[in-house]
Write a structure and sequence with these properties.
With 221 residues, the protein is an alpha/beta fold. The protein contains 7 helices and 10 strands.
């Protein structure tokens, strides 16, 4: 039985004020349960495409479907419903540095209405999966360079999303730490989670051997 697309992008263009087009006529499908890497030069449009899928930005034209939902025309009030099934690992992910690692992971669960018991259980399970359970009381700023991306992943997967979107998750990491972070994504993918990673890390691509989508100046290469 063939997998069905969980992401379907059709003739999408993203134009910013001033006329700059970050994406130009992009069309692609991503099957549920797959692992896909977006790659290309800096400024190729990788981060922009992830932001369109997450509803952080809107396409100037074309259609963006995620999990059957039309993100391009979705009302802002409906965005929480979309993101309930998305784990976002973005470089500018907002953190509360006056709260512990555990508090940062549990907060999105509390916002989505999880009971106190379920939220606590899911937060600790997420920290355990990324190897940070023993650091749950630490302040985020005290985490090492290798622990920081793990914390972002724990926060992203606490709600048990069916898809993970990650933007350059191994940027500035040493090769060994980068490999361990990618192995975390592999583990989630092996249990059926769709994983979409934007990266220019060729070593990670060689390690994971995912489906690779190349972007060049906003177009599929």
């Amino acid at each position: 039985m063939e997998a069905s697309p969980i992401v379907s992008v059709s003739h999408v263009t993203k134009r910013y004020p001033g006329g700059y087009e970050a994406l130009q006529g992009v069309s692609l499908d991503i099957d549920a349960g797959s692992m896909v890497f977006l790659t290309g030069h800096s400024g190729a449009g990788k981060s922009t495409l992830l932001k369109l899928l997450a509803g952080i930005e809107r396409a100037s034209s074309g259609t963006v479907l995620v999990g059957g939902l039309n993100v391009s025309s979705m009302r802002r009030a409906a965005m929480p419903y979309l993101r309930r099934n998305l784990g976002l690992v973005f470089q500018d992910h907002k953190l509360l540095y006056d709260r512990s690692v555990y508090d940062n992971v549990i907060l999105p669960l509390q916002v989505t209405g999880q009971s106190a018991k379920d939220a606590a259980r899911r937060a600790r399970a997420a920290l355990d999966k990324v190897g940070l359970l023993d650091r749950e009381k630490a302040n985020p700023i005290s985490l090492s360079g290798g622990e920081q991306p793990r914390r972002c992943i724990a926060r992203a997967v606490g709600n048990r999303p069916n898809s993970i979107l990650a933007d350059e998750p191994t940027a500035s990491l040493d090769p060994e730490t980068a490999r361990s972070v990618m192995e975390i994504f592999r583990c989630f993918n092996q249990v059926g989670v769709t994983v979409l990673v934007a990266t220019h890390d060729q070593a990670a691509i060689d390690q994971m051997r995912p489906r690779v989508i190349f972007l060049n100046k906003g177009r599929l290469a």
